[in-house]
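Private note to self, pasted from the team thread so I don't lose it. Backbone tokens:
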């Protein structure tokens, strides 16, 4: 890493962060000093992490393949739903390593490049996908020099935890490329909400409009996307002005139209030796402009990281300012100053008491999540089971039933596996909506839900009990089976006697009776087996539904406990801070005049330092924001 200009923003930022860190230590707030240290922890990492995110079918994975020059490297298809994140960085050769998180700890397994889709895509092998956290891909491409591209799941994926994977990756991101498609609908609400969440974590953001090769109206669509973004930001800031700092920069983020298709065509022409045509297609593809932005992000990573450090420092200064103001008020000769501060503390404690009551009421409401989970599973299972029951009713022969029974277990297993993602998505939406509302009611930020990556419960083999096996002797009921058949045989035998005489009666009547008897037996056996098959199917669906419900209830219960514990810890921490402030204010008011004077002077000195550092921080943030906005341009 190059030594920063001693008068440049990065060097001034480092000095500034050290001053704030030292001030927190002098004020006895090691907890706040640690917050700042954590924000600066990645400062020496010389690899720039660029997260590529977007909804499904927006051209994200194909874009990455085109950038690194390997069209089939990252899984791409119409229904791709990346199961983990993929890391692409420069290395001596093309290779891939799977990282798993198991009960015994992390496991690292080299794999072939061709098998990446088996581990990183929902279309891959379910057994291989299990417990996969990431796939690390290395390749020798100059574009990746000092860069790491992180391909993330679609932000609208139906699989539980996919959005959380992407949000978690933003914690380590230096920049974000957000993809939208020129051949798809304009940016949607959930995409804008993700962007708002991303803007709180990432300073350097660029929009990439993909698939512009076949869209004559891509400029119109881009303008509509920009208008929707502007409206969303305006509404969000009007509702909460404090969000202006993070959301407003989205309006000045660059938009880069690109075409992976044209870039691939350009490479094909280059291989054919048609250099002029290749250059023209490459220019139209927009990839050169995008690569310039990527290099700009890499060269300016210190600006992006610096903006994050400044935000952390300003937050620390705000907390330190509260304590300094208390000391100034406690040392005042005017008792009303202390009384006013004490009144604020008492009001805060009363509000916490009300929040604690709401927390208890909310926790009771949260216990009903389990019932709603069972309802979701039951409804989806019934929806899947019905076509099978309809098909059973069409089976007219025993050999059809036999073939159907042989195919049924695997067919149902596939149907349930296909539905599992939707079921857990529905459960996640339910849990997130309920628990986020619970957290917001207590004044907390939404809590990330850690996804449970366990496999779907196995569907056991369908066992039809009560049917007649091929080797089992038939049990004949004379009243039910033989007499009706004999009666019908005699009636038809009389008709035969009329035509053929007595011999016809003797020969035909028993044969007809036997045929009717065997047909009845065959038909009733089919009907009994149909009924048994339907019963077995329902029993098995009931079993799997219980297993699914148990797994999902356990997962939701874990989330609920985590959110409620976070709420308890937050309320306890806030109460402890207020009670400490109350005790210090009361103790300060009982001090001697000289002690109060010293406390007041100390508080005023700290306030002066805090105000000065805050002003410097705001200027630095503005300067760094401008530097970040200029990256790649």
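Design output:
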């Amino acid at each position: 890493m190059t030594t920063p200009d001693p008068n440049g923003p990065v060097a001034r930022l480092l000095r500034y962060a050290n001053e704030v860190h030292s001030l927190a230590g002098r004020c006895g707030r090691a907890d706040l000093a640690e917050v700042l240290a954590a924000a600066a922890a990645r400062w020496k990492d010389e690899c720039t992490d660029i997260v590529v995110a977007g909804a499904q079918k927006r051209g994200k994975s194909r874009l990455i393949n085109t950038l690194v020059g390997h069209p089939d490297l990252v899984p791409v298809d119409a229904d791709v739903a990346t199961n983990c994140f993929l890391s692409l960085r420069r290395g001596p050769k093309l290779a891939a390593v799977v990282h798993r998180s198991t009960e015994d700890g992390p496991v690292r397994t080299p794999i072939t490049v061709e098998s990446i889709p088996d581990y990183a895509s929902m279309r891959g092998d379910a057994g291989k996908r299990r417990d996969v956290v990431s796939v690390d891909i290395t390749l020798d491409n100059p574009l990746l020099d000092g860069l790491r591209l992180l391909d993330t799941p679609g932000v609208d994926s139906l699989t539980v935890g996919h959005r959380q994977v992407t949000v978690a990756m933003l914690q380590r991101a230096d920049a974000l490329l957000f993809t939208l498609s020129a051949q798809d609908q304009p940016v949607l609400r959930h995409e804008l909400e993700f962007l708002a969440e991303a803007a709180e974590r990432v300073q350097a953001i660029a929009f990439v409009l993909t698939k512009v090769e076949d869209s004559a109206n891509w400029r119109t669509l881009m303008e509509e996307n920009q208008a929707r973004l502007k409206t969303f930001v305006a509404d969000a800031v009007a509702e909460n002005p404090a969000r202006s700092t993070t959301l407003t920069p989205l309006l000045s983020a660059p938009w880069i139209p690109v075409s992976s298709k044209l870039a691939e065509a350009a490479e094909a022409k280059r291989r054919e030796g048609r250099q002029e045509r290749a250059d023209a297609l490459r220019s139209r593809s927009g990839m050169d402009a995008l690569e310039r932005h990527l290099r700009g992000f890499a060269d300016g990573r210190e600006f992006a990281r610096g903006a994050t450090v400044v935000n952390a420092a300003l937050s620390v200064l705000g907390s330190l300012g509260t304590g300094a103001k208390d000391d100034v008020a406690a040392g005042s000769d005017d008792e009303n100053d202390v009384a006013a501060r004490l009144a604020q503390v008492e009001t805060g404690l009363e509000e916490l008491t009300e929040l604690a009551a709401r927390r208890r009421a909310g926790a009771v409401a949260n216990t009903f999540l389990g019932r709603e989970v069972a309802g979701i599973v039951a409804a989806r299972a019934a929806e899947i089971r019905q076509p099978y029951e309809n098909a059973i009713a069409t089976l007219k022969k025993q050999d059809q039933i036999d073939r159907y029974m042989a195919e049924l277990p695997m067919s149902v297993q596939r149907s349930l596996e296909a539905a599992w993602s939707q079921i857990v998505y529905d459960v996640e939406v339910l849990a997130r909506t309920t628990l986020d509302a619970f957290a917001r009611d207590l004044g907390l930020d939404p809590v990330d839900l850690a996804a449970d990556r366990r496999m779907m419960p196995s569907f056991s083999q369908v066992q039809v009990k009560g049917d007649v096996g091929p080797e089992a002797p038939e049990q004949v009921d004379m009243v039910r089976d033989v007499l009706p058949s004999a009666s019908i045989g005699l009636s038809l035998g009389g008709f035969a006697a009329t035509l053929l005489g007595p011999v016809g009666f003797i020969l035909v009547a028993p044969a007809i009776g036997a045929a009717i008897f065997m047909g009845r037996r065959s038909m009733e056996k089919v009907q009994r087996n149909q009924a048994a098959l339907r019963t077995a199917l329902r029993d098995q669906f009931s079993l799997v539904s219980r297993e699914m419900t148990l797994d999902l209830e356990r997962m939701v219960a874990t989330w609920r406990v985590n959110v409620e514990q976070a709420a308890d810890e937050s309320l306890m921490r806030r109460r402890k801070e207020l009670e400490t402030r109350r005790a210090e204010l009361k103790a300060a008011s009982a001090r001697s005049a000289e002690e109060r004077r010293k406390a007041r002077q100390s508080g005023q000195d700290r306030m002066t330092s805090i105000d000065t550092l805050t002003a410097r921080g705001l200027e630095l943030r503005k300067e760094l924001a401008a530097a970040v906005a200029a990256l790649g341009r």
